[in-house]
Structure prediction request, 269 residues.
Amino acid sequence: MRAVSAILLLFLTTTFAEAVTVSSVPGGVAAFRIKSAERPKAWFEGKRVMVIPGQKKDQWQAVIGIPLSARPGFHNLKILADGETFIHTFTVRDKNYKTQYLIIKNKRKVNPNQQDLERIRKETKRIKAAKAYWDDNPKPPLRLELPVKGNFSSPFGLRRFFNNQPRKPHSGLDIAVPQGTPIKAAASGIVINTGDYFFNGKTVFIHHGQGLITMYCHMSRIDVKEGDRVSIGDIIGKVGMTGRVTGPHLHWSVILNNAMVDPLLFVGK
Prediction:
């Protein structure tokens, strides 16, 4: 996985397994080693956490997505291993993300009217369900491929202002490419949600296993449907400028245990 400025390797045992580069900051990823005869289970903030095999039979690794809303300080990982439950405390460090100011010509995309708000409420339920999707795929991918190649026009985590009004931080990576550019699946998985949403525009969610999900937004067209199995590199649609945008681009998000995390942490060099 890609090296980042803030790196932390956390182990629950003294035995080293495979190395994983992680970032223990809001929007980052933390990894923990667990020794257990059988596959353990783990939870962070009440949500199931990915657990994958280590190099030896009795070694496992919990991989946690840290939400952008996480406060710096101590946090707890709940672990069930070999019939016992215990808590491991770890530290999330602060990170100051840059600020971005954007002008949105369609003012309803900044201040929706009542009809828009009713639509948004309905869509939010579907989007939340997709982000919370879980299955027990024993070997989900930890390395993803960029779905398109282009300039990173808006990095992850930006503190955003639309028409000088503060909004939620940028929860994905914007890649500026021409309209109509084919979008590839970042890894193999199952399409769990497609839709044309008020803010995200035409969107696809792909689940890759154990709560690892990729989201592709602002598409001009969608070429897959819910339930489709896709392989890495399969074309799932084309770049557009639907939803709340200032120009054609792909907004690409990575979700881990229902937390939006920095996609570049999963992209190889």
User: Anything to note?
Assistant: The two ends are 8 Å apart (CA to CA).
